[in-house]
Amino acid sequence: MSVIVRWAPSPTGRIHLGNARPALLNWFFARRHSGRYVLRMDDTDLVRSTREFADGIEADLAWLGVVPDLLVRQSERTALYDAARDRLIAMGRLYPCYETEDELERKRARARLLGKPPIYDRAALGLTGEDRARLEAEGRKPHWRFRLDGRPVHFEDLIKGRQTVNTASMSDPVLIRADGSYLYTLPSVVDDIELGITHVVRGEDHVSNTGTQIEIFEALGGAVPVFGHHNLLTDAQGQGFSKRLGSRSIADFRAEGYEPLAVAIVATLTGTSLPVEPYESLDAIAAKLDFSMISHGPARFDPGELDGLNARMLHAMPYEQAAPRLSALGLEGEAMWLLLRENLARFPDIAEWSKLLTGPVEPVVADEDREFLALARALLPPEPWDENTWSHWTETLKTATGRKGRALFLPLRLALTGRPDGPELRSLLVLLGRKACLDRLP
User: Fold this and answer.
1) Nearest CA-CA partner of 354 in 382, 385, 386, 322
2) pTM for this predicted structure
3) Domain that residue 342 falls in
4) Using CA atoms, how far apart are residues 283 and 101, in angstroms rounded to an integer?
5) Does the pLDDT at position 245 exceed 80?
6) Which one-letter DSSP state was computed for residue 180?
7) What CATH number has the domain bearing residue 198?
8) C-alpha span between 110 and 6 (Å, rounded)
9) Rounded CA separation 171/17 (Å)
């Protein structure tokens, strides 16, 4: 069987880490099985969905390294949903209901007082044609519910194992609103059938929906895909990511200078048995990650872990990989990159660190060090320089002044770089050259 997966975001905002998790897990599964990846924009909410958000989602996926094989938009597929609607109505599986939200809430409250589950009582199934005509004459427009079989629905979950959802404990779900617009469920099932989706990989908060959807698949005569429900990514406090709560978006991480692969690794390998460490590529992760490695417990995002991973990847990045990005910043030079990369937290930091070589640098000179630095200037060795020059110079200064350790090295670092931290001075000295050092020493 050829694997076809889909990821189906709603373009009502920019995607965040919680959204990126299923987007990437589907990508890994497709790559691992040489399958196809469908990006489906669930844009039936015409009020909140925008093309700008949809384009942003595509850009965010591309930045993460995900390029779908097919893009579809539900707003362009309404005829398919209408046809499925008509079939379900003709079969008696989709029926009109006229209760207002207030009336439904009163029914639910009454059921709770009686100690019963607050599920829909199917009163609308008892309406006659005359009843419906009277209600519509009053100006009421029906919403449409799918009549569930009310039975245990069993399925083998790729991640969670054998699952059972008893639809007898659920209300018949509303598939069509009173204004005629579709909710998520029916278009999703219709698209999965029409697109030949073989595997649906999504968050575990959808497990209870699966029983309903399997019944709709069966009612429409479609092949039921294999489902896999992964643990959800939460923030450090255990709270879920949300557009509504203003969680940092993937676009935010991009603007802040994080490596896309670092973001992808943390979004997907957190909450698995694979270590959160550098990988060569998404394909390298796909080759290692089996869904059996996904924990059944929560996956908690640690911002510090992302920062550490991002830095590790930069510190090991070869010049060939960095060169095009350096060029875009007006920088070049392998020696410069190899010297400065271990100081980077995020790639754009290189622009500031490169000033250690190109200037301007404001030397920091303490009054008690002026005499020492004047001597250091006088004893600065002649060129040519190599990586032994630093040790020769500092040994000469140590002998002449008796200074050692921090008292010897820190004043030199502050004078040459203007800061107490940074790359090793042994290599920096060679790249600076004698003239730049004389200019910075008082």
Assistant:
1) 322
2) 0.92
3) 319-358
4) 48
5) no
6) S
7) 3.40.50.620
8) 41
9) 32
